């Protein structure tokens, strides 16, 4: 679990609740989502219309080979560091793509260690996207431990908005979504388009957790130690709990809240 957050008087932690800001209002300086040019959006939409159905049940290799051949522009491979399957596949099929990691400030230490190992193992550049506010500044602005009182707002400010602000150079992104992860993801397409016109490519959609683990073993990939200790789905430390065998792999995320997604994929 993350270490206790220190108190700094200049950040106002412990101040009267009336001075705190509404968590539904993002901090000053938050950049709006960066959109593509009309030409880029149009080309991406054409790709969706022409190939989305054909790729729906395609293999990871087929999807990534398609992306390498057809996508015009740079791609970002988003890595949660729960596992490094996407990093391995991208090294083989998308050597010019960047790796993108959202460092929320609340990750398990083990997650940050995996990120450092990825940086050492793969030639692609690893871009680390951080929120506008540190965890200490967020506590001072919105109240201590926003993840416990309003996890949706916390995810928005520490995941969704940072991703949007770092996506400027890219016409699309590669995700690790799997249909087997949860009922909400059961119909995830392999090829989609996000709200800002970028391609959203998910080469692992047909994979099961067992198939993912087998690939990790076969390729001798970096292993996040918590995946061996009852954490099949790993996010921020305060919002991730162990999962009993046989349960939904994502049932340990935001336990106690009616929430199973951070907002990146909804």
UniProtKB/TrEMBL annotation:
<dbReference type="GO" id="GO:0070814">
    <property type="term" value="P:hydrogen sulfide biosynthetic process"/>
</dbReference>
<keyword id="KW-0479">Metal-binding</keyword>
<dbReference type="GO" id="GO:0051539">
    <property type="term" value="F:4 iron, 4 sulfur cluster binding"/>
</dbReference>
<feature type="binding site">
    <location>
        <position position="236"/>
    </location>
    <ligand>
        <name>[4Fe-4S] cluster</name>
    </ligand>
</feature>
<dbReference type="InterPro" id="IPR004511">
    <property type="entry name" value="PAPS/APS_Rdtase"/>
</dbReference>
<dbReference type="Pfam" id="PF01507">
    <property type="entry name" value="PAPS_reduct"/>
</dbReference>
<dbReference type="GO" id="GO:0019379">
    <property type="term" value="P:sulfate assimilation, phosphoadenylyl sulfate reduction by phosphoadenylyl-sulfate reductase (thioredoxin)"/>
</dbReference>
<feature type="binding site">
    <location>
        <position position="154"/>
    </location>
    <ligand>
        <name>[4Fe-4S] cluster</name>
    </ligand>
</feature>
<dbReference type="GO" id="GO:0005737">
    <property type="term" value="C:cytoplasm"/>
</dbReference>
<keyword id="KW-0560">Oxidoreductase</keyword>
<comment type="function">
    <text>Catalyzes the formation of sulfite from adenosine 5'-phosphosulfate (APS) using thioredoxin as an electron donor.</text>
</comment>
<keyword id="KW-0408">Iron</keyword>
<dbReference type="GO" id="GO:0043866">
    <property type="term" value="F:adenylyl-sulfate reductase (thioredoxin) activity"/>
</dbReference>
<keyword id="KW-0411">Iron-sulfur</keyword>
<feature type="binding site">
    <location>
        <position position="155"/>
    </location>
    <ligand>
        <name>[4Fe-4S] cluster</name>
    </ligand>
</feature>
<feature type="binding site">
    <location>
        <position position="239"/>
    </location>
    <ligand>
        <name>[4Fe-4S] cluster</name>
    </ligand>
</feature>
<dbReference type="InterPro" id="IPR002500">
    <property type="entry name" value="PAPS_reduct_dom"/>
</dbReference>
<keyword id="KW-0963">Cytoplasm</keyword>
<feature type="active site" description="Nucleophile; cysteine thiosulfonate intermediate">
    <location>
        <position position="262"/>
    </location>
</feature>
<dbReference type="InterPro" id="IPR014729">
    <property type="entry name" value="Rossmann-like_a/b/a_fold"/>
</dbReference>
<comment type="similarity">
    <text>Belongs to the PAPS reductase family. CysH subfamily.</text>
</comment>
<dbReference type="GO" id="GO:0046872">
    <property type="term" value="F:metal ion binding"/>
</dbReference>
<feature type="region of interest" description="Disordered">
    <location>
        <begin position="11"/>
        <end position="43"/>
    </location>
</feature>
<dbReference type="GO" id="GO:0004604">
    <property type="term" value="F:phosphoadenylyl-sulfate reductase (thioredoxin) activity"/>
</dbReference>
<comment type="pathway">
    <text>Sulfur metabolism; hydrogen sulfide biosynthesis; sulfite from sulfate.</text>
</comment>
<feature type="domain" description="Phosphoadenosine phosphosulphate reductase">
    <location>
        <begin position="79"/>
        <end position="241"/>
    </location>
</feature>
<protein>
    <recommendedName>
        <fullName>Adenosine 5'-phosphosulfate reductase</fullName>
        <ecNumber>1.8.4.10</ecNumber>
    </recommendedName>
</protein>
């Amino acid at each position: 679990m993350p270490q206790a957050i220190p108190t700094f008087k200049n950040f106002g932690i412990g101040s009267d609740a009336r001075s705190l800001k509404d968590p539904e209002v993002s901090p000053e300086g938050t950049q709006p989502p960066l959109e593509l040019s009309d030409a880029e959006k149009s080309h991406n939409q054409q790709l969706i219309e022409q190939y989305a159905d054909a790729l729906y049940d395609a293999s990871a290799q087929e999807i990534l080979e398609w992306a390498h051949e057809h996508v015009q522009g740079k791609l970002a491979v988003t890595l949660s560091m729960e596992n490094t399957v996407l990093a391995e596949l991208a090294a083989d099929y998308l050597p010019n793509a960047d790796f993108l990691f959202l460092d929320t400030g609340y990750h398990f230490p083990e997650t940050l260690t995996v990120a450092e190992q990825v940086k050492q193992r793969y030639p692609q550049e690893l871009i680390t996207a951080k929120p506008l506010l540190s965890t200490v500044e967020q506590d001072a602005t919105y109240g201590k431990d926003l993840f416990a009182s309003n996890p949706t707002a916390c995810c928005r400010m520490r995941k969704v908005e940072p991703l949007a602000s770092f996506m400027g150079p890219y016409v699309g992104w590669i995700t690790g979504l799997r249909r087997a992860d949860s009922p909400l993801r059961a119909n995830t397409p392999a090829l989609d388009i996000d709200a800002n016109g970028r391609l959203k490519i998910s080469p692992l959609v047909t994979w099961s957790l067992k198939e993912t683990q087998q690939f990790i073993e076969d390729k001798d990939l970096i292993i996040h130690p918590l995946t061996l200790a009852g954490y099949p789905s790993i996010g921020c430390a305060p919002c991730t709990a162990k999962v009993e065998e046989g349960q939904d792999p994502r049932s340990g995320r935001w336990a106690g809240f009616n929430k199973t997604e951070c907002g990146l994929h909804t």
